[in-house]
User: Fold 8-amino-7-oxononanoate synthase from Campylobacter helveticus.
Amino acid sequence: MQVEQILQNLQNESNFRTLTPLRHEGNFVFKQGFKMLNLAGNDYLNLASNSALKQEFLRSVREEDLYFSSSSSRSLSGNFDVYERLENFLKAKFQKEVLLFNSGYHLNFSCIAALASVPSTLFLADKLIHASMIDGLRGANFLRFKHNDMKHLQILLEKNHTKYENIIILSEALFSMDGDMANLKELVRLKKIYKNVLLYIDEAHSVGCFGGGFGLVEALKLEVDFCIFTFGKALASVGACVITSKKFKDFFINKARGLIYSTALPPINVAFSLFIFEKLANFNQERKKLKELSEYFKKGLRAKKLEFLGDFYIISLLLKENQKALECALKLEKNGFFAPAIKTPTVPKNSARIRFSLHSGLSKNDLDKVMELL
Assistant:
């Protein structure tokens, strides 16, 4: 099939993507000069636009961290000491080894691909895991279990646990599109039954927002083999890390291609991530307000008998058809709210939606206006 035909098919299916420049100003974005409240970001604690926080960081940053490029991979000359300062901070918190990556996508893609190279390894993946994890599975032995269906997962474990030396369960802690939590306690219980099972949990959308800010696994006091943090959402920074054992840290340093062959993050960005992690305990008010706003919005949607998904601050209004989701997004835009339509392949076919990504900088009045429009 020709490229032109592929693009035409996407347009016919109301599934053609474009990139529109946006100017950001606090809680708002400007699209072609039109001001809209941003309900599409993942800045859950509203830290990215916190000017006082940024100024405090710039006053405190060390001269040796004021580099806007590392100019090399970490395995060559790019291993600035600030990377290890951040890794050691988290190591002290979790009593486990930590390894930084440039992004959650780099991390998931290359760590899962590296694990897939180990002979006699099978992955069991939740049906709704993120694309970065799915891409890491290409060429791997894997099966998928129905979303959050622990009975289906146990059936697959029972069938396969004697056939492979290693079985790795892949899940998100808080799912990025449906906004629901994995049954982490049950996953840990299953891991203990089958001795060759490892747990790989992506905390991209939960780190910062639960307990003292160090994710759901830590808040629930659970033990997993690979805990993934990404810094570009609630932490208002950039990058990612895997929290794991020394054996697997050494393995990823040697086998994770996204680490080996990428220029490392700029030291100033890593210094900002460390700055935020050191302050996570200070953001309890933001976490409390985020929870209150989420409950308020869900209660209002239920009162209007609107179909939605989401147990926390990721709330998806289900519209099913691509065109219907696009029309709803356009209506919201015209009334000053930026919440683009989410379509396949980001979500399964016939589950197009508007994904509202709430943050602690919003007000109940903002949400009232959205609900009136809906």
About this structure: The longest helix spans residues 284-303. The chain has a mean pLDDT of 94. The CA atoms of residues 111 and 252 lie 6 Å apart. The two ends are 40 Å apart (CA to CA).
